[in-house]
TrEMBL record:
InterPro entries: BtrH_N (IPR026935), DUF4872 (IPR032369). Coiled coil: none annotated. This is DUF4872 domain-containing protein. It comes from the Bacteria. Transmembrane segments: none annotated. Residues 155-324 form the DUF4872 domain. Pfam families: BtrH_N, DUF4872. Residues 14-142 form the Butirosin biosynthesis protein H N-terminal domain.
Length: 327
């Protein structure tokens, strides 16, 4: 049995920030989950649909692993990433890190993890690994999934090797602080401005505030779009509100990030952004509730209401990001 010493298994809301928190605390840098999310310019929006999906996916963050890359670049971290198609090499990569006394991040498909409570395929899930024995591995996942957890080595191998949307090729990664760490406080305004600029200038209409507007037009038709509305719509709502988003499709995390920033930097634009994202977080929770009710009742009126709120959300978030871009 091999374990990394002094790992704090603090499971928070979102998988990638949970894993980043474990790795960075082990290196001596302890930042809140909202701060990690915000410094990684993690907030976004995507309306994603394909024929293979039971209903479209509403995503509230940048694509998997982009947050980690953003954070590493912004803080001058050494990010070492390994990918391989070889199961043997994939295991050697992570075991070597644990053997050396360093926790390692893994991107995988959560469907194959023994402890996972909702059995859905999602190839962008991220965990931190800090130990293993002959049969099992010891991981840190989000609080809702149990925080400090364990799964079989066979299940982990299947999760890491899964192919499909958002998967990595047995991706693993480690993080190290530079000899002279940068001031993370100095990176707050660049991170906010970058996030706002990307949100406002998204290249296609499925992204950013235009994507939210598009969702407002299309969500009212989801009862006809869904293969099994009573199953598919509540599942979509669950992923939006409680599937590692921190509530409000990540807007609650960004609200708390801006609140923390406003306590460090005296700028009215940060306070305005915080107020607007507090409003947005509540509205996104309403949308998820209405989608769930529509699936349970078969009443399209709930989806019509959700569409109206999404139109409002597009405006609220555009206003917020236009203010924050001016920092």
């Amino acid at each position: 049995m091999t374990f990394v010493k002094d790992v704090e298994a603090r499971g928070t809301h979102h998988c990638e920030t949970t894993a980043l928190g474990v790795l960075l605390r082990h290196e001596g840098l302890d930042l809140s989950e909202p701060m990690l999310f915000g410094l990684g310019s993690g907030l976004s929006f995507v309306y994603w649909d394909s024929k293979a999906m039971p209903v479209p996916f509403l995503g509230g963050r940048v694509k998997p692993f982009e947050l980690t890359r953003n954070l590493a670049a912004r803080l001058g971290l050494t990010l070492v990433t390994e990918e391989t198609t070889s199961p043997r090499k994939a295991w050697e990569n992570v075991a070597a890190s644990v053997d050396a006394g360093r926790p390692v991040g893994l991107q995988l498909d959560c469907y194959h993890l023994d402890y996972f409570r909702t059995k859905v395929h999602f190839g962008g899930h991220v965990v931190a690994m800090y130990g293993y024995d002959e049969h099992e591995v010891y991981l840190v996942d989000t609080g809702p999934q149990g925080g400090a957890v364990r799964t079989s080595r066979a299940g982990l191998a299947r999760a890491r090797a899964e192919r499909g949307p958002m998967t990595g090729r047995n991706r693993s990664f480690t993080i190290a602080l530079p000899e002279r760490p940068l001031s993370w406080q100095d990176q707050i305004i660049p991170a906010v401005r970058e996030c706002a600029g990307a949100f406002l200038a998204a290249p296609i209409a499925n992204l950013g505030y235009r994507g939210i507007e598009k969702a407002g037009r299309l969500v009212p038709g989801w009862l006809l779009r869904a293969a099994e509305p009573r199953r598919d719509l509540p599942q979509a709502a669950l992923l939006m509100e409680r599937g590692g988003t921190g509530g409000g499709l990540f807007r609650a995390l960004y609200r708390d990030f801006l609140d923390e920033c406003a306590s460090l930097i005296d700028d009215g634009r940060l306070r305005t952004g915080h107020r607007l994202y507090a409003e947005a977080a509540g509205l996104w929770t309403e949308v998820a509730t209405l989608i769930e009710k529509a699936g349970e009742s078969g009443d399209a009126g709930h989806l019509e209401q959700a569409g109206v709120i999404l139109h409002d959300l597009s405006r609220v978030e555009k206003d917020a990001m236009e203010v924050l871009r001016q920092l």
